[in-house]
């Protein structure tokens, strides 16, 4: 099974290419969104990451697989809300300031496998090329193989994110940067799996309600200061970012197709409202 619209199911090795200089990212994965019935309004309207899940047929116990990934998805959704409440307080906002954004959020759980790769420093081979995450925030579960690195801006060097058993890594996404006028940064990171073994990870992406308009938070700029980024909806932002990183692939065409569909779908949805 290969990935299709809307961004769900199996994704083959090298389908995504973040740095564009190499042959494509050396990872494969399975994408799942929150489980929704096919007749749910958001699914019918073709909202970003609000499709019908595809589940792998080859799995030994499909019922258990489905229950486990859906439970994990639900837990991560609750945890994201909690983190957004804390973020609100750190920005001198009311605790529930992000609630509207969090409601009916687009979320994706990616189950990733990174084959081991050559260790030469000069190689352009990446498990996942240097990038920042696109959405609101990411909660990452990684195994014990290591390989995740974050860009240390002050030291101008890549720093290893050494796995700690039971710990989750939380990353802010580009949307938070737009929203806070760069007060909060979405940090650059990448994966190079030099462990000699397969590496598994499960990032959970919380992007917010597709219809939500992200515009500079008033408390994040001075009165005379201009907003650095124009307002944009979550849906528009996310589709554009995905299309950027799937250059020339079947996925790019699928995403372009989805963009066109969603333009229509947004109109349909407004009519329903
Ligand atoms: O696998 C990892 O540790 C990181 C994955 C990641 O950065 C991503 O999928 O955006
Ligand atoms: Fe990432």
UniProtKB/TrEMBL annotation:
PANTHER family given in the database record: 2-OXOGLUTARATE (2OG) AND FE(II)-DEPENDENT OXYGENASE SUPERFAMILY PROTEIN-RELATED
Alphabetical keyword list: Iron, Metal-binding, Oxidoreductase
Sequence similarity: Belongs to the iron/ascorbate-dependent oxidoreductase family.
UniProt keyword annotation of Zinc-finger present: no
Record SUPFAM superfamilies: Clavaminate synthase-like
Stored Pfam families: 2OG-FeII_Oxy
Domain spans labelled Fe2OG dioxygenase: 105-208
GO molecular function, one term: oxidoreductase activity
UniProt organism field: Aspergillus uvarum CBS 121591
Protein's recorded name: Clavaminate synthase-like protein
Residue runs in coiled coils: none
